[in-house]
Design goal:
The longest helix is centred in the last third of the chain and has 23 residues. This protein has about 375 residues and is of the alpha/beta class. The protein is built from 13 helices and 13 strands. The two termini are about 35 Å apart. The chain has 2 domains: about 120 residues, Aspartate Aminotransferase, domain 1 (Alpha-Beta Complex), CATH 3.90.1150; about 210 residues, 3-Layer(aba) Sandwich (Aspartate Aminotransferase, domain 2), CATH 3.40.640.10.
Length: about 375
Amino acid sequence: MKKTHHGGNVDAVARRLAIQPDQLLDFSANINPFGYPMSLKADLVAALDLLPQYPDPEYYNLRQSIANHYQLSAEEVLVSNGGAQMLDEVIRALSPTAGLVLAPTFGEYEHYFSRLKVPVYHFHLKPQTEFKFELSELIDYLERHPQIDVLCLTNPNNPSGGLITNSDLRALADYCHQSQRKLILDEAFVDLTIPQVSSFITQLNSTDPIVVVHSVTKFYAIPGLRLGYAVTKDQDLLRAIQQQQNPWSVNALADVFGQQMFDQSKFQVQTRQWLEDTQPKLMRALKAFPALHVFPSHTNFILFQVALTDLRERLLKHRIMIRQCDDYEGLDKTYYRVAVKSEANNQILVNALGQVLKEANLV
């Protein structure tokens, strides 16, 4: 298992460069560039008065708000201190014999399995086919590995940006039910898809052995606040996860934020318009460099390959952070991921990238 590192570590990079964090442009973390909805700032400030008391351990209002958004029962909703914590709790609850993850994909899944000393199998997505997911190939792989009882997939996938269709997810859910497997579906970026797709939560039924996990971090830009949630209609699975959860795992400010996040319609429309306009422009600008192989993406980040193993360090000289992807299974130091930011900041990235490629004689 490769050691996982993450984007967004602005403070550490700033210390190394002896500059202030706000002097860096961070394209390594895939966060909404608008920041959190400012309409909620007063509510967050007011929530400071809640700090002397414990949060509701049942998080009734928070779970009810999430349930109302998806037209569910609140009993089918779980909440946590971020999506990563929820994924850890779900994997522990499932007590897997053997796990399956995509390769490449978010590295923490394998970390959570490995902490339980559970063997992990990789279903490799190939650069030759643009990391495209093929359901028939996955099912064939599972048929040849009957010991795998838990699958952990992310949709859209990170770092490739590839999307699994809801029709394929329905077929996979039915297959998992028939073959007595469990599926963890991480939808951390589903609200930031192009074209926009609905969460698979809306298609769950009572026979689906599935937990759908969401992170509020990306769309609502609150990585420093932490809030995640999960939905399952599998009652046995629901009880098993509840037994793994610690009390008061969501702080009072995140609780208040989560109760109101789905009401921020102006922010949601603004974000959709930004993404649909800006992501294709950045994609075209990157593809204009012959030295880059840019992979198709359906979300707010873009993966590319270039014949440079030090592109990250070269761009740091321009005070730009990007994500080197050598810690992802199946990728090496020539793969990089960049987030989609504001149009002005994207242009700064493109200009700096052009200069670096020219200096490396790759233009």
